[in-house]
Amino acid sequence: MLLPNYAEARKRTKNNATKEFYNRNSEFCNLGLGKKYFVKTYGCQMNEHDTENIKAILDDLGFTETDNYTNADLVLLNTCSIRENAHNKAFGMLGRLKHIKQLNHNLIVGLCGCMAQEEVVIDEILKKYKWVDFIFGTHNIHRLPYILNDFLSVGKQRIEVYSREGNIVEGIPVKRENKFKAYVNIMYGCDKFCTYCIVPYTRGKQRSRIKDDIINEINDLIKNGYQEVTLLGQNVNAYGKDFSYDYNLENLLEDVAKTGIPRIRFMTSHPWDFTDGMLNVIKKYKNIMPSIHLPVQSGSSKILKLMGRRYTKEEYIKLFDKIKKIPNVSVSTDIIVGFPNETEDDFNETIDLVNYCKFDNAFTFIFSPRIGTPASKLEDLTTLEEKEKRLYTLNEIVNKYFLENNQKMIGKIVKVLVDGISDKKGMLCGYTETNKLINFIGDEALIGKIVEVQVTDAKTWSLDGKLI
Ligand code: SAH
Ligand code: SF4
Ligand code: F3S
């Protein structure tokens, strides 16, 4: 058993990440023969992309995928630790699986992802969930075949979680969910240590993938007809800071743009590392989408300082104004309300900032204390009721701006990558360059293509349009 250790997870060394290749061991290729698997994913795009790797590994071991966990032979939960409700959802699912396992003793249950990196979670599993069969963490997805093989041959609970990041592992197979939009990791981990956030502990030190590996992956995607890539990292603006040579996100964006892939997105950008050079590259290349996710977290400089965000409200606004100079750009954000010591005045400063920025989209959250983070130890006198009231007030205002911004689009002709059949009957849906959802009538043959659509109507969360 290899258990997670927070003191280790917090450590950062100057050593640069080294690279290793995924070792496909053909000895294991029949491990899952005749067995069906189901993977449930919680959390961010990074986790969704990890699931794409995990599924490909399971396929490679001879398993087949099922979309119904009640008839699966193996259920794996790829978990998220970011807020308590993500945590509760995973434990709720474990509760349901316990019942199924009581009826079907052969069911194999596994847990991976960010929660596997948490000491408190593993403690609880060791005490109350002894029937969970295998656990691995975010740093050793490539070890899945060995872990499963060990569990299947010994039949005892197998826990293998590395507390510290290891090498960057290239060449892990991938089973992409989408045939024309792809996630591409450009870096792993985060060194920002915002005081509320658990990610630097669950994902380890910031490590960038080298340019050639990224560009080769994108060139392969282009060959396979992919139209869009989203470059992923917890803080993509810090890309390359761990290299011993000069190569940063500005350079990478330019090199990715030159591959000619029709659409490039990237997330998430921390305001601290956003450079003018990046802005120039985004303006210069038509295939870099004018859609920036720029989490602000709070409009109060006092709270930002307590959060360890390293910028003030004024600095954020200055950067925001610069970004807004990109033609037709859309800006989205993340906001936390109810951070410890947030007063009514601090909250009103957040509202002022929202009234100034009029974001195109915003993900809003109530602060959730995460064990092991500095903010979880701060005294917090605001009641949950008050926090819920703030969230409600904030949501009313952000929603108003979503609608207003969408209404400004009416009459405009926009380029849309057609995603699929819309929830609205008889319609297709897709995303504009600025990442707005749009529904319109069209032939299914257009799925996966970029088309022009005229906006005819606007709602808070979506647009309606007419194919040109
Ligand atoms: N790396 C990204 C964000 C990753 S987490 C960034 O730095 O912007 C996504 C969002 O979850 C964060 O932007 C933040 O708004 C929210 N979040 C993170 N930790 C949280 C916590 N403890 N409580 C509430 N929201 C949190
Ligand atoms: Fe968390 Fe901050 Fe890193 Fe984002 S930048 S992942 S919020 S520590
Ligand atoms: Fe959650 Fe881990 Fe992503 S905590 S948000 S799955 S990096």
Describe it for me?
The protein is α/β, with parallel strands linked by helices. The chain has helices spanning 6-10, 45-60, 84-103, 119-128, 144-154, 199-202, 211-223, 249-258, 276-284, 301-307, 313-323, 344-357, 384-407, and strands spanning 19-21, 36-41, 64-65, 74-79, 108-113, 134-136, 158-160, 168-170, 181-185, 187-188, 207-208, 228-232, 263-267, 291-293, 330-337, 361-366, 413-421, 428-432, 437-440, 450-458, 463-467. It has a 6-stranded parallel beta sheet with strand order 3-2-4-5-6-7, sandwiched between helices. It has a 5-stranded mixed β-barrel with strand order 17-18-19-21-20. Strands 9-12-13 form a 3-stranded parallel beta sheet, sandwiched between helices. The longest helix has 24 residues, at 384-407. The radius of gyration is 23 Å and the shape is globular. Bound molecules: S-adenosyl-L-homocysteine, iron/sulfur cluster and FE3-S4 cluster. Residues 82-83, 196-197, 199, 234-235, 268, 270, 295, 297, 334, 336, 365, 367-368, 370 line the site of S-adenosyl-L-homocysteine. The site of S-adenosyl-L-homocysteine has 17 residues, from strand 15.
Termini separation (Å)? 60 Å
Beta content comes to 15-25%
The main sheet comes to:
6 strands, parallel
Number of strands: 21
Low-pLDDT residue spans: none
Please state the overall shape, judged from the principal axes of the Cα atoms.
globular
Query: Helicity, in percent?
Result: 25-40%
Walk across the major sheet and give the strand order. 3-2-4-5-6-7
Rg result:
23 Å
Unique bound compounds:
S-adenosyl-L-homocysteine, iron/sulfur cluster, FE3-S4 cluster
Continuous helix count:
13
Q: In terms of structural class, how would the helical and strand content be classed?
A: alpha/beta
- How would you state the average pLDDT, rounded? 96
